Amino acid sequence: MNAFVRAVGRGGLFALAVLRASRPTPGFLAELVREIYKIGARSLPIIAVGGAFVGLSVILLGYRALDTYGASDQVSVMLGLGLYRELAPVLTALLFIGRAGSSIAAELGLMRATDQITALGLMAIDPVAKVVAPRFWAAVICVPLLTGFFISFAILAGWFEAVHVIGLDDGTFWQAMKDAVDLGDDFLGAFLKAGVFGAIAALVASYVGFHSEPTIEGTSVATTRAVVNASLLVLMFNFVLSALMFR
Amino acid sequence: MSIRGPRLEFAVGAFLLLAMATLLVLAMASTNGRFSLGADRTYPLQARFTGIGQLRASGPVKIGGVTIGRVADIQVDPKRYDAVVTLAIDDRYRDLPADTTAGIFTSGLLGEAFVGLQPGGDPDVLKPGDEIAFTQPAVDLLQLVGKYMFSAGADKPGNDAATGGAGNGDTPAISEESRP
Which of A11, A19, A98, A242 has the fewest CB atoms within 10 Å distance of its CB? Predict the structure, then answer.
């Protein structure tokens, strides 16, 4: 119990240190652009493909379930609400953790193992400001944007499946979704969630990388821990946020 | 890092612009485009019902099938024990006639419950906060079916044979026993 509370405290202090170290200096902005490219733009293919296949399978599942009640033309409601409220933020965050979180942890772990972080400190450069803050803000910016890509690819793939494979009506598909998805509740809620998940993913990954054992093994342990802990935290926070936002 | 300088900036710029465009298109193509009817753009009306069925807060209020507002609140009157439903009606529909009737209906057999308004012809209009005088409670379909089944035999005892012949022989018998 004691150890758990202390771990939470260390995480909170680390988050505070990251926020305090974030200043929009030219060096920080240049680093931020590089990180957005590395963890955001380069994650686009996996998000697009992942989203498209999620859209396809949600339509298959929804058609099977709703057809029982003769309501198969409402399948786009299930797709839209399911994506915005739960699936898109969570799955985007999980894919992002697998692709970018692991690389953040490995990168920082290797910097720790090769004493680069200590060297930055010796040169009176705050290592948190130099290597952690840009990655944190890049994740907070990129995960909502990637969620947008996820949703659009899922809806396009779902539309293709529903209208051109199953043969539902095109107009009903779009109109039912438009009527069901609320711009304030569902749309903005999805991106709020995604921002929180981006922050969680980046904080956990950089924390375990930053504080890893300075050995080769320590780096691999940090990578594993980043993926496991960040994924679990995202799933838990998703439930809490859903319970708070969508009553 | 494989690319640097201007090409990196171009890649990031393209990513951000594409993402913004995607969000804009998504917001327009797949949502209802409103943040919910804001409190300042609606006015309240009240209606009393003896039963509200499956009506829930934030359910739609419709005239002729078109949504013109939301159910803001549902309370029970602590004295008269009927349900007081507060409706938030869009400000564009301010001049509803004073003899407008309100009813609770269900869209389809399994659909959501909504409040349907039927405007009358009174030249006086309902002011914000007014109560709709003429209301019609929700119809409970199952209760209706039950009543019909059990009263069919009880009302016309002479007709038992015909009802039984329709294929449900024990229904009239039960209703006979349940009579005092």
Answer: A19
> pTM for the whole thing?
0.74
* pLDDT tens, position by position, B6-34: 888 888 888 988 998 998 888 888 887 66
Contacts of A105 (CB under 8 A, 6+ apart): A205, A206, A208, A209, A212, A222, A223, A225, A226, A227
How confident is the model over B64-108, as pLDDT tens digits?
888 888 888 899 999 989 899 999 888 888 888 988 999 998 877
Distance in angstroms (rounded) separating the CA atoms of residues B101 and B91:
19
Closest CA to A83 of A143, A16, A18, A153: A153
Token output for B44: 């309240």
DSSP H or E stretch at residue B88: strand B83-90
Q: What is the ipTM of this complex?
A: 0.77
Q: What is the pLDDT of residue A23?
A: 85
Q: CA A173 to CA A66: how far, in whole Å? A: 14
Helix (H, G, I), strand (E, B) or coil at B90: strand
Residues of B in contact with A173 (CB under 8 A): none
Q: What six digits make up the tokens of A236?
A: 């838990």
C-alpha gyration radius of chain A: 20
According to DSSP, residue B1 is labeled: -
- Among A35, A66, A145, the strongest candidate for a mutation testing the B interface, having the largest count of B CBs within 10 A, is A145
